[in-house]
Amino acid sequence: MVLVGTQCDLRQDVKVLIELARRRESPVPEADAHALAEKVGAVAYLESSALTQKNLKEVFDAAITAGLRHAERRARRERKVRTTADKMRMLSKAWWKKYVCIQ
């Protein structure tokens, strides 16, 4: 998972800051966003802006990389489970052949 902060161009927009102050709110500090990303287990935190195109490529690259890594880990885990089950099956057959005369 990648956590993305959007509309980062509005962080310095005076009108937005005035409106937020009126509601007793403020933009989320970048340090708090990084802490949240770590808390929820995100692999990365990036800020972007569709308006200014800031970090858009980086956001998509990070999402693609995270998705590929997740798929690779899942495939590796499934292979491990499959090979373990196959080994157990083969061991079971070999064990029975030692003690049973009928094949």
From TrEMBL:
Lineage top rank: taxon: Eukaryota
InterPro entries: P-loop_NTPase (IPR027417), Small_GTPase (IPR001806), Small_GTPase_Rho (IPR003578)
PROSITE patterns per the UniProt record, alphabetical: RAS (PS51421)
Gene3D superfamilies in the cross-refs: P-loop containing nucleotide triphosphate hydrolases
Pfam family, one: Ras
Record carries keyword GTP-binding: yes
Keyword set, alphabetical order: GTP-binding, Nucleotide-binding
GO BP annotation list: small GTPase-mediated signal transduction
Keyword GTP-binding in annotation: yes
SMART domains associated with the record: RHO (SM00174)
Entry's Gene Ontology molecular function annotations: GTP binding; GTPase activity
Listed name of the protein: Uncharacterized protein
Naturally occurring in which organism (per UniProt): Albula goreensis
